[in-house]
Design a protein that fits this description.
It contains 21 helices and no strands. The chain has 492 residues and is mainly alpha-helical. It starts with 14 loop residues before the first helix and ends in a 14-residue tail after the last helix.
């Protein structure tokens, strides 16, 4: 691994003028380290909690269909065959297509306005899922849910990266992602409680799961307008001195790797960069496991012979363990400034779980239950690292924004795969589901290896001076190269 790479910040919006404004201040090296630590603590208290809570609710609203399924959803809506899989799949069509446009809008709108607005909208859609009378109505709601949730995750990752330096990012991204992990636990607990409302108002328990969770989302979205932070230059929680210090830190971190204009050469650099596409394949491979565990864990536990209620309760500790391990790994990957080995570690852990489930006819129920711990934990070790690692390899505001949206948007095609591989006629063994998920996981592993080797090769090219010819470009283009700048180095 290379610890000498040039620093950078990913996804800096509106920063060029602000960074120039603070350039006359004393050199950053002389900044008060105590003040810097106080600033980081303040950022952690204001930036992360609200958007993490929103992400938990977003993921619950996305995956609560798994809990609703075992509470009578399919029977009440007369669903047969693979209708459930289609309902899962249709969500991802707008979700994939609208992520990049949403990030473009976010650049021009206050995050507190845009993120709370789309959340309010998907909360309404979730309530509608609880009162729909037909399978067609369910499909329409799932489609609209994908429309309004599309911009949330890339927008939040983009916003987080606005406040932190490169090797402060993984820990914060993992805290954010732990909200999605814990949504599995909290969603199972909430579904357990709401299932007891069956019969109230003439509604079955699964309807109350959607209705109550949707109403919670709406209320939190209203509060989010006042609690979500905006861009560093306009955030009200920062004092002028803190804002100056923050912008100094980011100015030092970005170095020469800037992309503050989205002109034709910049567009070409964004859409022809091999790193973005390999990073997308990494995410595509592992996100299949993330969605598989979210959509089908309650069903799998139910088919191990446990009641629907017990299956929901037993899913809770799986997600709690995954969250704790993901946070521990985040500490080490930031402190060691290394990504690749931890990515492969997660792949290996999840692989062990899939092998157990593929051989489940020869193992006990307890072993199969433990396999779900391995799969969920392994997947959530790797998934957030793929996001932070690609961000580390991007230099400049626009490059980071496009890369984040493309990776999450196109990578979520793995969710379409996950929606279609757990074939109803194959339950309870699901050989295709487990086999394909295992294969997808190793697509992530292979892509991570390609990413590593490509970054090592590119760093060596730059060390040998083979990219120095770019220093002779016109000043306007040289200052907008992003991570193509010859002085930029990649981390592994």
């Amino acid at each position: 691994m290379d610890f000498s790479e040039k620093p950078q910040v990913e996804g800096i919006s509106h920063r060029s003028s602000s960074l120039e404004d603070v350039s006359h201040h004393e050199p950053f090296e002389h900044a008060d380290k105590q003040a810097e630590r106080r600033l980081l603590r303040k950022l952690d208290l204001h930036v992360l909690p609200m958007i993490s809570l929103l992400y938990m609710l977003a993921f619950i609203d996305r995956i609560n269909i798994g809990n609703a399924r075992i509470q009578g959803l399919e029977k009440d809506l007369h669903m047969v065959g693979n209708d459930y899989n289609i309902a899962l799949q249709i969500f991802f069509v707008p979700y994939i297509l609208l992520e990049v446009p949403s990030n473009i809008i976010l650049k021009k709108v206050a995050p507190s306005t845009w993120l709370s607005l789309i959340m309010f909208a998907w909360g309404i859609i979730t309530v509608c899922m609880g009162v729909t009378k037909s399978y067609g109505g369910l499909l329409a709601c799932r489609l609209l849910l994908g429309v309004f949730e599309a911009g949330f995750v890339p927008g939040c990752i983009y916003l987080i990266s606005m406040y932190y330096k490169r090797y402060e990012l993984q820990w914060r991204v993992n805290i954010f992602f732990c909200a999605s992990i814990l949504s599995g636990a909290f969603g199972g607990l909430l579904a357990y409680a709401l299932a007891n409302m069956a019969g109230i108002g003439g509604y079955n328990g699964w309807r109350w799961i959607f209705i109550i969770e949707g109403l919670i989302t709406i209320l939190v979205a209203i509060a989010g307008k006042f609690l979500i932070v905006d861009w560093p230059e306009t955030s009200k929680f920062l004092t002028p001195t803190e804002r100056s210090l923050l912008l100094q830190r980011l100015r030092v971190d970005v170095a020469e790797a800037r992309m503050d204009r989205l002109d034709r050469p910049a567009l070409k650099r964004c859409f022809t960069d091999w790193k973005i596409y390999v990073g997308t394949i990494m995410y595509f491979g592992v996100v299949c496991t993330g969605y598989s565990t979210s959509f089908f864990t309650p069903t799998i536990l139910n088919e191990l012979g446990w009641t629907a209620v017990r299956a929901q309760v037993l899913s809770i500790p799986i997600y709690i363990v995954a969250a704790v391990v993901a946070l521990i790994v985040a500490v080490f990957t930031d402190r060691l400034r290394h990504r690749y080995a931890f990515t492969i570690l997660g792949v290996l852990v999840a692989t062990t779980g899939y092998v157990v489930l593929l051989a489940q006819k020869n193992v006990s129920i307890g072993a199969r239950y433990f396999a779900l711990y391995l799969i969920t934990t392994g997947g959530y070790i790797t998934q957030p690292i793929t996001l932070a690692w690609l961000s580390n390899a991007m230099g400049g505001h626009y490059k980071r924004s496009v890369a984040s949206a493309m990776q999450i948007g196109l990578g979520n095609m793995g969710g379409i795969v996950a929606s279609n591989i757990y074939i109803t006629s194959q339950k309870p063994t699901y050989p295709v589901g487990y086999g394909v998920s295992l294969g997808m996981l190793w697509i992530c592993g292979i892509a991570s290896t390609v990413f590593l080797l490509g970054l090592i090769w590119e760093n060596r090219q730059r060390d040998a001076g083979k990219r120095d010819w770019k220093l002779g470009l016109e000043k306007e283009e040289l200052e907008n190269l992003g991570d193509d700048h010859p002085n930029f180095r990649f981390g592994y």
